Amino acid sequence: MKFVDSATIHVSAGNGGHGCISFRREKFIPKGGPDGGDGGDGGNIWIISDLNMNSLTDYRIKKTFCAEHGQNGSHANSSGRKGKDIFIRVPVGTRIINIDTNNIIADIKNQNQKLLIAKGGWHGLGNSRFKSPTNRAPRKNTQGSLGEHKIILLELILIADIGTLGLPNSGKSTLTSSLSNAKTKIDYYPFSTLYPVLGTVKINKKKFVIADIPGIIEGASSGIGLGINFLKHLSRCRLLLHIIDITTIKKKNINKIRFIILKELKNFDIFLFKIPRWLIFNKIDILTKKKIVKIMKYITKKINCNQKYYFISAKKNIGTKKLSTDIINYLYKKNI
Fold this sequence. Notes:
Blueprint: E1 6-12, E2 45-50, E3 64-66, E4 86-91, E5 94-98, E6 104-107, E7 114-118, E8 149-156, E9 162-166, H1 172-179, E10 197-203, E11 206-212, E12 239-245, H2 254-268, H3 270-273, E13 277-282, H4 289-302, E14 309-311, H5 320-331
């Protein structure tokens, strides 16, 4: 099933029912007073977050949601029935934007969060509401008001503590599946990851959520490749892991490899660029010990002393345990 992270929908709350003009007509009760009832309120439209949803696929086809109108009032002071509400379920992490004003209505970040997105119309008043000592037979009522109508954009931004970045085939998916319970697709061709995948890592009753997105290539910010379409899913992360295939360093300067990703991040969103990043040099299991020592010295010389970096093998689980522990300590504000 295709991963859908945005959808535009139309929502229309119900109109309020009209008030009734009626007078009491019963045998042996002459000149009965006004008994027109109020109308019913129009149905509301609510958005509710659902932890069991992970995509907006449901809204690829169904794009219009209309709540029920309130019924009109009737005689004998009978009020009209309220219109039924509509509940739209969305994944946790959905941002709701008003298309007409481009304003963010809400950012759904919690489970079972409930938001009134379109309010139903107010009920009209029946003529019994207008009786008074000076007007005992009012022929006046009010109409129910119209319900709200909006065109809104649902934009899913996954909620994760940690995000992975890297060129295709750098080992992001392997690392994500190695650290967590995520079931990611792993292969030797570029873009084996076609949509974001979340996994949960638990260590000593503490946990974090890691997000794996498709690889980013040079020129991604101008629309090349897949990764740029999903970079927004890293915007909520507290830490980014920049994965680098250590075997490619012999062919390219280390800073050139790093700056490919950094340039695309900066072009996409300066706030995403400012999220703390750790460098993860992956696939050390492929190299000989002599070669690893040589590259480690080279990298240590080239990397800024303030930049935190690790040498690991996601496939062989070398160095991944320490990486997970350090991430937990970082997220829970411990010195590492």
